[in-house]
Design a protein that fits this description.
Layout (H helix, E strand, L loop, with lengths): L7 E8 L2 H12 L2 E2 L9 E6 L2 E8 L2 H5 L5 E7 L3 H10 L3 E9 L3 E7 L5 E7 L17 E8 L2 H12 L1 E8 L5 E7 L6 E5 L7 E7 L3 H10 L3 E9 L3 E7 L5 E6 L4
Parallel strand pairs: 1-4, 5-8, 9-12, 13-16
Antiparallel strand pairs: 1-5, 2-3, 3-4, 6-7, 7-8, 9-13, 10-11, 11-12, 14-15, 15-16
Protein name: VOC domain-containing protein
Length: 259
Amino acid sequence: MTNRQGEIIWYELMTSDADRAAAFYDAVVGWQVGAPPPGGPDYRMIVAPDGNAGGMLQLDAAMLQAGASPTWLAYFGVDDVDASVAGIVAAGGKVLVPAWDAAGVGRIAMVTDPQGVPFYVMRGATEGATSSVYQRHGLGHVGWNELLAPDAEAALGFYHRQFGLTRMGGMPMGEMGEYSFIGHDGGAPIGAIMPCPPEAKPGWGFYFRVDDVDAARGRVEAAGGMVVMAPMDVPGGERALQAVDPDGTVFGLVSGVEA
């Protein structure tokens, strides 16, 4: 694995209805969601115009009974999954699914940060392989990662210590606090951490890049989703919106070119 420790190397949608979700995101983002493999879990590849952008997992009855629910999750690439899990637990996080080896894929564990936000850690099985699912300007890819945290300062410290994410300036939001930009070791920002508003659910959220956010608003509504934050200008010359898919899962869209 050649991605640096702490880079996001995969995105996954857990859904209660993979066929419906595939049709929705194909229409809204322009993906091509593959067919489920024969036998085993229903796991489908999400394909952007230039290659894989993530995966889609159909939640089965056992997963739902165990407490799983529709959501988007990120995989943080690490050099040693077991050591990373131990460090996360020592810092106050929890293990949701203990580390396991997925044949031909890699070693994976599902955990939470100390504030209960879930994510995966993973070491890929193929040495030298590099993930490009995150692309700041790649059409159909996640172009921004945003964490809503009950305690944003504590979250900044945790993700810095565990994954090398560093605060790279910020934008004041009045009584809500600061929108803190984050990146790896002085590189370009990949997202932000902000205090979680009272009406929102803490967690990682992701903005997918589309050709035109204003046009995509109509596609969201026509495909059975709902826009919860209308298209708006964001710092840097881009436009963004937030919506929920037919499962009620929150996601974002972004378009435009940074100034």
